[in-house]
Amino acid sequence: MLDLGISKIALIGAVALIVIGPEKLPRVARTVGTLLGKAQRYVADVKAEVNRSMDLEELKKMKDTVESAARDVEQSVQTSASDFEKDWAEVTSSASAESSPWTPPPPEYKHPGKHWRLKRGAVPQWYKARSGVRTKALSGAARVARYRPKPLN
């Protein structure tokens, strides 16, 4: 683009000082700086818009490819489903043609076992009894009666 060195910028500043004058030069420099900033923002906005439109086009292409792949999968599933339905109709029609009403036997009854509602622990009862582990819950009244001190008569 423009190749501006320090010498060229100094030359432009000297010409501007002579042409514009020292009183108006700061205001003109501020205005030029503001205009350059607006121009840079406008160029950045245009670049961003172009990038967004390019990304949008890429996304549209990707969307089209995904939709076409989904349509192909759907068609293949429908064809395989229709083939399955035809095969199933053939099998069921041949089974009804033989007229053998085979039904599986009911499952045999299995007794759940003794005390099937009780939770079975991993520690055996004889070990709990020997070590003094409580296996039954006591009510409050039963606990008081059990641990009440004996009379000293």
UniProtKB/TrEMBL annotation:
Q: Does the keyword Glycoprotein apply?
A: no
Where are the annotated segments for Disordered? 67-115
Q: Where is the protein situated, by its record's location annotation? A: Cell membrane; Membrane
Q: Which Gene3D superfamilies match?
A: 1.20.5.3310
Q: How does it sit in the membrane?
A: Single-pass membrane protein
A GO BP annotation = protein transport by the Tat complex
Entries under InterPro entries matching the protein: TatA/B/E (IPR003369), TatB (IPR018448)
User: Does the keyword Transport belong to this entry?
Assistant: yes
Q: Where is the composition biased (Low complexity)?
A: 92-101
Offer an example of a GO molecular function term for this protein: protein transmembrane transporter activity
- Keywords in alphabetical order: Cell inner membrane, Cell membrane, Membrane, Protein transport, Translocation, Transmembrane, Transmembrane helix, Transport
GO CC aspect terms: TAT protein transport complex
Query: How is the quaternary structure described?
Result: The Tat system comprises two distinct complexes: a TatABC complex, containing multiple copies of TatA, TatB and TatC subunits, and a separate TatA complex, containing only TatA subunits. Substrates initially bind to the TatABC complex, which probably triggers association of the separate TatA complex to form the active translocon.
Q: In UniProt terms, what function does this protein have?
A: Part of the twin-arginine translocation (Tat) system that transports large folded proteins containing a characteristic twin-arginine motif in their signal peptide across membranes. Together with TatC, TatB is part of a receptor directly interacting with Tat signal peptides. TatB may form an oligomeric binding site that transiently accommodates folded Tat precursor proteins before their translocation.
Q: Which family does it belong to?
A: Belongs to the TatB family.
Q: What is this protein called?
A: Sec-independent protein translocase protein TatB
